Amino acid sequence: MKKTLLSLALASLVTAALAQQDPIAMKYAKIISPELAKQHLSIIASDEFEGRETGQPGAEKAAQYIAAEFKALGLQPIVKGSYFYDVHVVNALFKMNSFALNGTPLASGTDFNATGAGTKTINAKDIVFIGYGIGANNYDDLKGIDIKGKVVMYISNGEPMKDSVSKITGTKTLSEWSGARSRKRAEYIQSKKPLMLLAVNAGGGGGGRGGRGGGAGGAAAPAGTPPAAGGGGGGRGGAGGAPAGRMGLAAEGEAPAITVTIPAATADMILKASGKTFAELKDAIDKSGTPQSITVKADIAADYTTTETPVKAVDVLGFLPGNDPKLKDEVVVISAHYDHIGLVRTPGAVDKVNNGADDDGSGTTGLLEIARAFTQAQKDGHGQKRSLLFLSNVGEEKGLLGSLYYTNHPVIPLERTITDLNIDMIGRVGFEYIGKPDSSNYVYVIGSGMLSTDLHNAGERANKTYTNLILDYKYDDLNDPNSFYTRSDHYNFAKHGVPIIFYFNGTHADYHKPGDEVSKIGWPMLAKRAQLVYYTAWDLLNAPKKPVVDHPIK
Question: β-pairing, 196-200 with 165-166?
């Protein structure tokens, strides 16, 4: 009898769930198909597009293809009658002309490595040691300290630890301040407007973390260093053999402080007047769990210049106006980046194109399919209440540049933007699902509840009502060592307080390699994940109220 009652209860729940399905939404969801996905992606990720590197002909071909699709679908060109939004990208060649300590010239590549942008001569008589440069609720190296216009030295990795327990988290798990790709520390310090940053890697060595590009002597920046003036951070990997210099946004006003990465030996030279070594100061912080910030007398002289060369780069925007007189001014953004890392420049390479079928040809394909579904609904008299912006970003692989420029200079004011649904890699099976029975029926969902409980619930509701994917929240964590939350275009919306969801299949063996080919895409899987985005957008576009931001901006 109990089993019968339980079965009846479950049946009624299923019936109730099915009753909530919108047959009109389901009708247009069918447009998002494996067949249409293959049609688009076979072009976008073809060798003809040469890996779609920002500033290269392949990226321009991709932008033209997307704009042609937007026009054919009837989306409105809202950039002064165009689908193209010029993103002010430059290739910035930074050069440290001289760097001296107490009158003694230091050698680039041995005593220091430098990265940044701008042109300036610096002569400082003291530096401020700010420990780890962390500003957490229970530990703040900068509490009561003004570093505006000053040269500061900080520990560029790790956080205060005693007996393997973090002072920040109170556990053995490191905080969001310490992720290998986290930009939180550098952004926090830069927000205080210092004159120059001296970054010391606690593990020794002056080369920073690598993989992030130039500076004097071929330097690599510490995690979190902007790639150029106004740069947005690291994307999810390096460029495929970009020209000399670093790609970033053109300088607007004064460039952020440059970062000079130094080894502990150079740090000790600077700290000499304090009577303490770098290791002793770090050890004191770790043992006491309290900041040891001090000002030290030292003559620092630096002279650097930056030469900027403009790079052709455009975001592609297509607009579908809403139909409700009261709600049409509110906008949902669906975004995906169309750029990838370009050609393989390794001598003797057999496959010379990084096609980027999954990254992010799959997201671009999903965006185009979703656009077709919504425009057809509109043509058939079933248009959505709120407005919808399809934002195809350039420069993600160069540091989230297209989305950074858009959110700094939005075509539609961000206060009217209620959500960004960002699609980046939805066509493959990630490492952790390979060989699992549910490998073709999952998606990683990141950031849905970071700012808004309402948005998280909308995503869950759309999935339970229609797609029944496994929503994996493993990476939905500010302490995720991969820092995926900060590594795609949604992050620039989130920084401005716009709620976001990031859809992602995880990395795989072909990530940022020539093997990321169209032939390896799972077409039904791509279409189903895109349908989840579509259904979530349908809900948000037609809901009586927009998602409330009920969590602090992260």
Answer: unpaired
First to last CA, the chain: 51
Q: Which CATH number applies to 90-310?
A: 3.50.30
CATH 3.40.630.10 is right for the domain spanning 21-87+313-542? yes
Q: What is the pLDDT of residues 507-539, one digit of tens each?
A: 999 999 999 999 999 999 999 999 999 999 999
Q: What is the dihedral of CA 240, 245, 249, 255, to 10 degrees?
A: 150
Q: Which of 343, 333, 279, 321 is nearest to 129 (CA)?
A: 279
pLDDT for 230 = 45
Q: Domain ranges for the chain, please list them.
A: 21-87+313-542, 90-310
Contact 180, 171 (CB under 8 A): no
* pLDDT class of 180 with cuts at 50, 70, 90: low
Separation of alpha carbons 154 and 134, rounded Å: 9
Q: Which residues contact 172 (CB under 8 A, 6 or more apart)?
A: 164, 165, 166
Given this chain, do its domains 21-87+313-542 and 90-310 carry the same CATH topology? no
Encode pLDDT of 156-171 as tens digits.
999 999 999 999 999 9
Across-strand partners of 67?
Answer: none
Is 541 within 8 Å of 386 (Cβ atoms)? yes
